[in-house]
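In this notation, each integer encodes one residue's backbone shape. One such record reads:

___
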Amino acid sequence: RSSTELRELLSSLNILRMPTEQEFQLYQKWTGEWGLSKEAILQACAQTVKTATPSFGYLDKIVEKLYNKGELSGEEARQGLSQEEQQRAEAGEVLRELGLKGITPELLEAVSAFKAMGFEFNALLLAAREIARKPVRSLEKYIQLLDELASQKLFDAESVKKYLKQSKKPSQQKKTSAHQYDERAKSDYDDVI
């Protein structure tokens, strides 16, 4: 029975040959030890299309991720993989707005955590655009800005937009004029010379 299922699995990966002993052992681990359903494994197979040459090694990493997250049924795997795909897409958008390259686990975690905190996705994009205007662009600066927004309880795009617009206005603090400088008490400078 599992030999037939394994051949079906190989076929879904466009591998048209008999399964090897190592592949059979992996399949036994996934279904026997870990308890994943055949449907969950097929959902993982669908994810391998992102690589030019799908392999059992790559499939094993995807299946292991499902197992670690407790997504053992076909439906749980489908939902989990779909959610992960959406998170990667959102992180990619943030990255483009930041003007940076390369989705990192830190970026995925940051976007996910700030959304869980209550940030609208468009607010995250506005913050990324703001950082992209700065001379130094980095994930750290982005996280600092989002922390600042969170401390102000600004989670929606409209509030973030207002805050960023307000923070760009020149400060209204009084500047010291040359005349005021000259009028300072001489004693302020006596010990300098």
DSSP finds ten helices and no strands in the chain. Residues 123 and 157 are 4 Å apart (CA to CA). The mean pLDDT is 85. The first helix runs from residue 2 to 12.
